[in-house]
Design goal:
The chain contains three helices and no strands. By secondary structure, it is mainly alpha-helical.
């Protein structure tokens, strides 16, 4: 029986990606607020930046984890990236409506 202290790498990988996306979203919000003072640009800026920035940090993380042989953590990072992508896609569809 697994111990209760055992952490699931799939969950950890997904949460790491979602946490990094939240940090990026908050950083972008601060940048937009300081530079323009207008919240309307926030949605466009965040939705476009998270998709682009996600490729910048997820791909190197996947390569690094592959070198370490952390396959379960790789699966978690991919799941977190897919969740972010699907949420991003849904937000774009809502903005277009």
């Amino acid at each position: 029986m697994p111990s209760s202290n055992h952490k699931n790498p799939l969950v950890i990988g997904s949460l790491v990606v979602i946490f990094i996306n939240l940090v990026i979203a908050i950083s972008c919000w601060i940048i937009v607020q300081k530079s323009t003072g207008y919240d309307g640009l926030f949605y466009f800026f965040i939705l476009s930046m998270i998709g682009i920035v996600q490729l910048v940090y997820v791909l190197p993380v996947l390569v690094f984890l592959r070198l370490l042989g952390r396959w379960e953590l790789i699966k978690g990072v991919i799941i977190g990236g897919l969740i972010t992508g699907l949420l991003n896609l849904g937000a774009w569809f809502l903005m277009q409506a």
